[in-house]
Amino acid sequence: MTRELFLSPALEVAPRLLGATLAVDGEDGRVAIRITEVEAYHGVGTPGPYDAGSHSRDRRTERNASMFGPPGHAYVYFSYGMHFALNLVCSPEGVASGVLLRAGEVVEGAEIASARRAAKRGDAGIEPIRPRLLARGPGNLAAALGITRPGHDGLDLFAEPFVFEAARGPVPGTMSGPRVGVSGEAGGSAFPWRFWIAGDPTVSAYRPGRNVPGA
To answer: What is the pLDDT of residues 158-191, one digit of tens each?
Structure first.
């Protein structure tokens, strides 16, 4: 995986991330995921249609500032007042676009990821989380990796605590379609900006929008 990839707009980068491995080191150890589902979001300065589903669709704010920062960095936000979400910043600095990591397969540190997920939902030790669900959905993925804001927002994806590797070997067939939970035109067939590995059990289920931008 190279930083040069992230100089391109998110829509070009997103499908190329499928099958890549992202690891994050924490005080309790390392968790790594194989990326199986992503979504692209464009903002100010990005060529193409106006993306009403993006946090950076109109202007730079304190919340979305990292999306305007250097490519190959993290943009982390707090969603629905419940969980964090991890985005990978794309496009040259000053131009806003990013790829939301929606789901992945935990390939290292499953016990750590499980403990983090259980602690987040407040029932540690009561019921184990099935492996395919550990990082299924952006909030669960961020929890499994130990991602927080401000802890990881704006950090370089090519430096500690991250370890980023491209897919090893060919990736199985991929699919694309509307983004999850994004309403209006930006959530419909005009924006098939969600990409996933076909048939992978970790991929999240589609649901229509709720008038809340995605990333």
So the answer is: 999 999 999 988 888 999 999 998 877 777 788 9
Judge contact between 95 and 27, C-beta under 8 A: no
Q: Which of 54, 35, 15, 5 is nearest to 195 (CA)?
A: 15
**Residue whose C-alpha is closest to residue 195's, from 38, 22, 86:** 38
Q: CA 50 to CA 54: how far, in whole Å? A: 9
CB 105 within 8 A of CB 202: yes
Q: Looking up tokens 């929008």, which residue turns up?
A: 209
Burial class (CB in 10 A: 0-12, 13-18, 19+), 136: buried
Which residues are 175's β-sheet partners?
196
Q: Is 10 exposed, middle or buried (0-12, 13-18, 19+ CB in 10 A)?
A: buried
Label residue 210 by pLDDT band (50, 70, 90).
low
